[in-house]
Each structure stands twice: as C-alpha cells, then as structure tokens.
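Example record used in the benchmark description.
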Amino acid sequence: MSDPNTPTKPGPGRVARPLGNHRGWIRWLPGVEMMRGYRGAWLSRDIMAGLALTTMLVPVGVAYAVASGLPGINGLYATIVPLLAYAVFGPSRILVLGPDSSLAAVILAVILPLSGGDPLRAVSLAATMAIVSGLVCILAGVVRLGFITELLSKPIRYGYMNGIAVTVLVSQMPNLLGISVDLDGPVLGLWRIGEAVLGGQVNWTTFGVGAATLATILLLKGSKRVPGVLIAVVGATVIVGALDLAGIAGVAVLGTLPQGLPAFTLPWIGIDDIVPVLVGGFAVALVSFADTSVLSRSYAARTGTYVDPNQEMVGLGAANLAAGFFQGFPISSSSSRTPVAEAAGARTQLTGVVGAVSMALLLVAAPDLLEYLPTTALAAVVIASALGLIEIADLRRIYRIQQWECWLSIVCFAGVAVLGAIPGIGLAIVIAVIEFLWDGWRPHSAILGRVEGVRGYHDITRYPDAALMPGLVLFRWDAPLFFANAELFQDRVLDAVAASPTPVRWLVVAAEPVTSVDVTAADSLSALDDTLRAASIRLCFAELKDPVKDKLRRFGLYERFGDAAFFPTVEQAVDEFAATEESAWITPSC
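Model output (structure tokens):
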C-alpha cells in the first residue's frame, strides 16, 4: 500500500503538497490515515525512538510544570494524553508535543496571582487555559486561519521570545539558588534576587547541585545521541538521595508522585478568573501555534513531506483540549525533544504513543522513582531550555540590514521583560498590526517615464533622463487601496498632476500592485475623479486585477469610469493616449 504522505516531486528548496485531497471526516485524522500505509519495517525504530524519548519526557515535563507554578505530576499528565491526541489529529510524523519553556512564563503570569498558593486551584486555572487554547486553535484550523502566525514578523518574534527567555531565567533563579523571594516581574525580581544573594540567603549546596546539573546539560547539549538532560538529572537525583542532602543541607526535592493515571476532570474556575484565563488561553494559543508551525515546517522541509498548517492547528488544539480535560496545562511543540525523537530514528506518530505509554507505566509501577529529584536540577533544565530561546546572532544581521526592525525587536523584548508575559504578547501583537498598517499607510508611489534601452516604464526619480509624454501622467501606487492610505493616494495623485511640466489631460494609474480596494478608498476614488473632471483630466487605470475590478463594480465605480478607462497594460494606455491626443515622448531637456 502506498504511503499517504509520500510527496510529489518538489522543486529545489520546496515542500511538495500531496496530490488530491482527502474527503470526508478522515481528513481530520492524519494519524489514522498514516496507519493505513504503515510499514512493518518502521515498527522497531518507532518503539526504540519512543523509549529513548521517554528518558527526556519525564524530567522535562516535571521541570516545566514546576516552572509554571504547578505540581510536578501535572507535567507528566500534560505529556501523556496530549501525545496520544496529537498522534491521531496531528499531521506531522515526528513532532513531539508537551510542556514547553516558552509557555511557562505565560502560564505562571496568569495562575500565580489567581491561585493564592492553592495547588488544586492552580491546576484548575491552568487546565482551563489549556481548554481555551485548544478551542481557539481548533476553531482557527477549521476556518483555515493557519496563516495568522505569519503576521508576526521575525524581529517581533525574536523580541518576544528573548523577553520570554529572560522572564523564565529570572523565575528559575530562586530555585537554582535555594532562596525564596517574591518576584513580581523580571526587573523587580532581579532586584530582589540580588538583595537575597547579598543578604547571605543562598543555599550553596542547592546552588552547587543546580550549577553542576546546568553545566552538564550545556556541555552535552550538542550531542543528539547522548541524553544530556537525563544524565544530568539522574546524576543529581542519585547524589542528593545517596548523601541525604535533603535532610542534611536542606536541598528541596520533588517528593513522591501520586500513583496512577490522569483522570478525566472538568476544571472549575471563579467568575472573576474568566477574563484573565481567556486572555491567557488566547495568548498561549498564539505562542504555541507560532512555535509549532515553525518547527513543523522545518521538519517537513527536511523530510520532503507537506504539513497542512490548518490541520496543524487542529492537532495542536486537540492536544491542548486533552491536556485540559486530563489534569494538564497548555502545551506546545518541543524544539528540544523533537530532535531526540528524530535522532533516535522516529518514523511516525507511533513514537509519541510509545513515549506516552512508557510514562503511564512509570506512574503506575514506579511513582517513587523521582522522590529525590532536586528542584534545583529542574530549574537547571528549564534554564538550559530558556537559554536556547535567546536569539542574538540573527538580530545582529537584522541590525546591519535594517536598524529600525532591530529596534522594533528590542521594544518587544523590553515589553515582555518589564510588563510581563501577557502584556508583552499584547504589545507584540499591537506592534505587528502597526508595522503592517505602516507599510500600507505610507507606501511608495512613483511618476513613470520611458527610459531609453530599458523595457517598461520606470520611476523618474531613479531615472532623471526618462522621457515624458506631454499631457499624460503615469502614476504607480505600490500598495492596496484602503482606509488608511486613501487620502494619501488622492494627495499624491494631485501632487503628480501639479508637478507635470505640461497641462495634464490624462492621468493613468499603473495599478498592478493594487490588490484590493475598500469602501473608504472607493469613495476617495470617486472624489478624486470629480476633482480631475473639473480640471478636464481623464482618470484611467492600467493592469488592474480582475478581482479589484469586481469590487469596483460592486461599489458602482466601474460603470462611472466606463470600460474605456481600463487598459490591460500601461503600453496600451500610452498608445491610446498618443493616438487620441496626438502626442509623443519628449526628454526633460526638450
């Protein structure tokens, strides 16, 4: 049987889409579709990769739960069931989902002030956030909004993730140092950590264990086959347990985990919690899908397969729903665990299923295995992951290319670091919208002329010797026409008329870059036409796209201008003017 994900022949650097479309409900279950073409030769590799993956899933899941302000066991719950859900609904074959450091600061920012230190309440709040995130992702996937994360430019994403990384680093410093402080944000948190260090509150044994764990992880981080996290965490656990550092030196440990599997639970929250949980859930959905879509596309390109971004949203949403209903918290893809699965030889989603089943067996058969796991080692795991979120090198490149985008990234970073994760996300979205509107609000426009020896018509500011035709203005507008730039378009057209060295009889808009027109812009076009007609100037359009013409018909403007005002090319418009007005090209020197 053929492999349903076998790609068509891709061009260089491209990921091919599969031929044809799956019809009916089965298209929403890529995992089921994959099993129809499963090959027996893959089974042993998927099982071995799943077992290797388990060695990393357990300590990382616990670490990110603690970093999110939740009991460690919930990190395992947030790994087991979501992996099973994604295996059914997720389109990527080897993507690994679970708790992630990029979400820890967001989750903590929501549940910490609302839970009042009650772990059960914290779990309910976090589970509800996961449900909200899941519903948002599924809805967005069903209505095919998989493109929305592309609205956040690379510098904005860098700034946001750098801010998240700093927030996570600061939040884990007290656990690494063995101190207890109220952080209240990264900036104030750093100040209070500094006071605690200067005040002699550091537990140096705790810090020694944590620092050694962190150093081991970072030293082994470059190896895909040596499980650095597992070695570091197991080593720290063995040392703390063997030397009884919890009792002698006061090193905090995880303790015994509850025995048994996660149960289906409906989380309940108070009315006052609804708004912050909704905002947090939406923010988590945006961040988690941005991370997941980038990672998914990267591995799809490496394997030559196509991953539908809308189905990726559905898969991520289903995994978050599963986490929310089974005592977990919001999850995302993992850029650290997915390479482990790949290096271990994972071929399909079955790898994640094996990992989930192995973790479930651990909870049933050996819940005391992590009893002496020090929280400082968990902090080291999270810190190592947060360091991986920081992007500096590419920001230097962006600074050399376009400085204002680098400063934009720094503003987003400062927003997250100073205001916190949730307001920082809001700031990043606002900046992204402003950036998008700015490009369309003040677009480039040009008066065109004919250049000797160069085909087409070109900006006369770039070619001062370009020839002009008396009585004709060729005006190009390099953006859609919409409410934010409609008045500017009108002003620039009239400026072009005023700048003409000869009386103007025709103004032709080279409209190939105009991809859309809204009502405000249509009204502005109508007012512009009235102004030009009063000056005996005919307004025409060349190379206007048919969908835009259809909009002009709906607005009643097409009939106003008439068929004769629309030309398929600028050349034909020029020829028509030259024949009608008996004009010819002249150079500026003439």
